[in-house]
Amino acid sequence: QEIGKNTFGKGIFNTISKDSTWSMKLGLRMQYLTSVGLETDINNQFNFTQNNFKTDTKVRRYRLKFDGFVLSPKVKYKIELGMSNNDVGSASVYTKSGSKLILDAVLKWNFYKNLELWAGQTKLPGNRERVISSANMQLVDRSLLNKEFTLDRDMGFQLRNNHIIGKQLLIREIFAITQGEGRNITTGNVGGQQYTSRIEVLPFGAFISKGDYKGSDLKREPIPKLAIGATYNHNDRASRQRGSQGSIIDLIDDSGSAEDHVFTMTDVNTTFVDFMYKHNGYSAMGEFAYRNADDTTIGTNPVKTGKAYNLATGYLFNNNYEIATRYTQIDYKGIGNTTEQYTLGVSKYIVGHKLKVQTDLSYTTVDSMPEGLQLRLQFEVHF
Amino acid sequence: QEIGKNTFGKGIFNTISKDSTWSMKLGLRMQYLTSVGLETDINNQFNFTQNNFKTDTKVRRYRLKFDGFVLSPKVKYKIELGMSNNDVGSASVYTKSGSKLILDAVLKWNFYKNLELWAGQTKLPGNRERVISSANMQLVDRSLLNKEFTLDRDMGFQLRNNHIIGKQLLIREIFAITQGEGRNITTGNVGGQQYTSRIEVLPFGAFISKGDYKGSDLKREPIPKLAIGATYNHNDRASRQRGSQGSIIDLIDDSGSAEDHVFTMTDVNTTFVDFMYKHNGYSAMGEFAYRNADDTTIGTNPVKTGKAYNLATGYLFNNNYEIATRYTQIDYKGIGNTTEQYTLGVSKYIVGHKLKVQTDLSYTTVDSMPEGLQLRLQFEVHF
Amino acid sequence: QEIGKNTFGKGIFNTISKDSTWSMKLGLRMQYLTSVGLETDINNQFNFTQNNFKTDTKVRRYRLKFDGFVLSPKVKYKIELGMSNNDVGSASVYTKSGSKLILDAVLKWNFYKNLELWAGQTKLPGNRERVISSANMQLVDRSLLNKEFTLDRDMGFQLRNNHIIGKQLLIREIFAITQGEGRNITTGNVGGQQYTSRIEVLPFGAFISKGDYKGSDLKREPIPKLAIGATYNHNDRASRQRGSQGSIIDLIDDSGSAEDHVFTMTDVNTTFVDFMYKHNGYSAMGEFAYRNADDTTIGTNPVKTGKAYNLATGYLFNNNYEIATRYTQIDYKGIGNTTEQYTLGVSKYIVGHKLKVQTDLSYTTVDSMPEGLQLRLQFEVHF
How far is CA A259 from the centre of its chain? Predict the structure, then answer.
């Protein structure tokens, strides 16, 4: 195929080879974010003086995406690279001190009926908000629930199935066994593997264009659609505060090379229940998250246990402006603080999620801590 | 468009989509540099013994460039990634310890007549030599003036205008408001914003092919062309030795996360006056730079204030060989040394700036310091 | 050329421009590796209990490759970028603390008859196994000989020649003069240059499709083919344990910037003799390596001197399954241990080296140290 055959937003190229032995779509996308924040002063008042504002401007995400099939449409691949300094995460001795460029690098083999085997590094079937691509978000960014509870990405294998019961009841089952240390680790596994199971129920059938994993009802579902999902994750002898993510609980021995470090470990379990509902431009997404651990006290950075709620809802007007709101609550055990965040957002979808401008205003309150206001403005271009 | 339709140097592809909703040019370029240096010995003599030479070989620059428009030719974008270890700059806690791959990531919206709004990360309208792409240089690399005084890149907004007065007097006005911390910062703004204003006057009209921002008169301007520019930059409460660039002046508190560091700050102002003249293969470029600060004494690395001159001139022979010379002088206040550098260069433009071999010899003298000689050889390939 | 004209494994595109001024082939490849290891316990027994296994899963290699010619087919280029955390190597002050993305960046100019001048960064003409691309290996990865003795990549110049004597005796001569510090160094040369000479003799003529530098006899050479090579390398005043590779021998002065560090240095010499034989699906490769140094005692990390053998052999069945074995022995002087490794591998070449699954089992024994078993599984996709 020639380059430039596609309309904007459909890939720089998206081609099947002449002999049908492979295909590739090349995507490129960029998010540019400016934000202004303000905290309450010692009198617990917002003081709107210029010097009190904290501003932040950055290339929030910059991605190169390759996907398609090899040999047969039954063997698909997906590769996504992140290039911005925000994407590459923090280098550590466990990543060869290198920038973590690779986000996804996964093969998906549909080996029997609806059964797919995935091998490689990609997102785990965790909370819905996490699995929704950062290209398809309803507000400027994901919620605090996601920040604190996400299973994020991992390396290993996933088995996926789906089937329809009766006329339209769609069921999906996913099981993953992965290394449990998060993405781009070069020094091998610590402790045991990580096991993730997820089931999804869509009582009224599939959403248009996979809308159960996209923010906002851009397709204006003509009949109501609902998806309910539940995930249970067990990280056997995890080494980090949030299972595969966050700070290391503790190092018992860091005298050797990074491969030989000895970690403090405990089993960590995470549960999610979530839903997505869409109809006629109206959308609602809810999530509940819960994490516990075998030993919640060991280490200088003990596992963060507790629960969180998140509810987002929006309405898309005919002119492709959307107003959306979100409420998030985080309750970490032992920390004694409840965090609450209220967000109000306005988006203009110029070419759907491919070219859009989004802004939102968040008010955050934490027990006996300064309150915060944050205004964000982001635009996205997605070839 | 098919790949390979263009002749060498015009992009790997350069295409407008069939429905004219977007366009993209993909460029790739590489510079390979070898240099040999020698310093005077304790008797202030150059001792041309083999072991005294210091050699250095490297991939100086390796870039991937995407530019074009989205939706309308009035909305342009430019993305440039740097991949060599020289390009990626030094990782720090303010860049998530990651390689700084993104050089430019900017949208340019021509929203009214000649008015353009730029948003994103790109070069500031500072000294002319800096804005000239490193692909289009007359000598092997930029001068010491640029090294010490450049405003480099920043994140934020620029407003650009241009108009013609009378028959051919071209005036350009640029105003930028940016974060003031330099490129790829992930930890937000420190102090105030950075404000940059520039005016350019081209009394004899525009140069052929934007030649006022390209080294050497490759187009052999048939009538004399002149561009004069002046920039004033104000970095409100800057935190680094050269405004947005260089070492941190001082950290008052580095106990928290990088976002919470407290910096020593002072206002920094930089002024540039520069010109470019071209006629019939002859070109001359001159720059004057001046930096001062509100408080020139605070911190362990106080702001570097002072002034600098730079004058380069070259003549392009009919066989596309060029001989060029450059004189640069740096006077930093309080340091008590004047640096002077004389450079003589020879270039062969095989396919203009797209395929060229350049060599230059520099003699550097600093008051009461060893003198230096440096011979450099560089070739560039630019698809 | 259009994208997708080629069959799988022949490049995403591979095109000559319409006016024949340049060409480019774009390749993309990924290796995904899972391994399980076990060491003997204090009773020198393998205890096959689950918790004793050490597992490791990673994107082993992720590469983007550009090659072709500029201006004339006599001026070729090759650029290869590595993107996985395993590829980018360890950042250091000598690489601007940046990820080492660039593997190859080299121009190859065929300036006279069979004489080629190479300039840039690429592999040195060292041991055969190293020069075989990691895309074309017979087993999951290279041997321990390569790990301990490779000359790897360097920056500088290579001169290459080849000629045929008589009917089919093919001789190749290569001479390289390079910086001697390894790839992606930004701080210039330490000590003297590195000199590498190699001669190759192919008594029965060239292999099909450059098979003397590819693992496995995928072309099933109809008549026996043999290649014998010998390399001598001299690293004048080297600063690292393995010449241009490995830990720094010692720093005499690290007080200044990285460019000004003063290193402990000694001359390091490395010799290789190797061969490749192929016939009818059967292949055998052997290597001998020897390293010595002028001073083998200086520094906290003295130069590792000694010798190593490596012999690999395999047979490719008609169904494109291959069974291969390898024996490697490393004898480092002064360390008093001999390392021996036995490897047995099975590969399925689905589309040659472009799409393959490989597994191997290695048994490693080191004098008076625990013995090790390692099972590896790797798949490769190469567009």
Answer: 28
Cα distances from B99 to residues A84, B87, B150, C63, C150, in angstroms, run: 9, 9, 21, 18, 27
For residue A115, give Cα distances in angstroms to A158, A174, A196, B376: 10, 10, 17, 60
Tokens of C136: 């074309």
Helix-strand-coil percent breakdown of chain A, rounded to 5?
5, 55, 35
Q: What is residue B53's DSSP assignment?
A: -
Say if residues C59 and A119 touch (Cβ distance below 8 Å). no
ipTM here: 0.94
Q: Residue type for C229, please?
A: G
Query: Residues 95-154, chain B: which have Cβ within 8 Å of A?
Result: 95-102, 105, 107, 119-121
Q: How far is CA A286 from CA A231, A309, A313, C110, C120, in A?
A: 14, 8, 9, 65, 55
What's the token pair of residue B60? 């100086």
CA distance B24 to chain C (A): 15
Chain C partners within 8 Å of A187 (Cβ)? 56
CA of B189 vs chain A CAs: smallest distance (Å): 5
Q: Do C102 and B84 touch (CB under 8 A)?
A: yes
User: Given this model, what pLDDT does residue A5 score?
Assistant: 84
- Summarised one tens digit per residue, pLDDT across range B34-66 is 999 999 998 889 999 888 899 999 999 999 999
Give the ranges where B112-217 is alpha helix by DSSP (H): 128-131, 144-149
Instruction: Kindly determine whether residue A156 and residue C6, on different chains, have CB atoms separated by under 8 Å.
Output: no
| Cβ separation C17–B4 shorter than 8 A | yes
Proportion of chain B above pLDDT 70, given as a percent:
100
Q: Which residues of C touch A244 (CB under 8 A)?
A: none
Please list the helix, strand and coil fractions of chain B in percent, rounded to the nearest 5, in that order.
5, 55, 35
A335: confidence class by pLDDT, cuts 50, 70, 90: confident
- The pLDDT tens digits of the residues spanning B219-267 come to 999 999 999 999 999 999 999 999 999 999 999 999 989 999 999 999 9
CB contact under 8 A, B55 and C98: no
Residue A188 to residue C91, Cβ atoms within 8 A:
no
Which residues in chain C land under pLDDT 50? none
SS3 sequence of A218-272: CCCCCCCEEEEEEEEEEEEEECEEEECEEEECCEEECCCCHHHCEECCEEEEEEE
Alpha carbon of B356: minimum distance to chain A alpha carbons (Å):
29
User: Cβ contacts (< 8 Å) between A355 and chain B: which residues?
Assistant: 70-71
pLDDT band, residue B3 (cuts 50/70/90): confident
3 state SS of A149:
helix
Chain B residue closest to A380 (CA)? B107
CA distance C88 to chain A (A): 6
Q: How far does the CA of residue B84 sit from the closest CA of chain A (Å)?
A: 14
Q: Do C70 and B8 touch (CB under 8 A)?
A: yes
> What is the rounded distance in angstroms from the CA atom of residue C61 to the CA atom of residue B128?
42
With a CB cutoff of 8 Å and minimum separation 6, the contacts of B154 are B121, B124, B176, B178, B179, B180, B181, B182, B183, B194, B244
Handedness of CA B103, C154, C64, C32 (dihedral sign): negative
What residues in B contact A58, CB-CB < 8 Å?
155, 185-186, 188
CB < 8 Å to A185, chain C:
58, 85
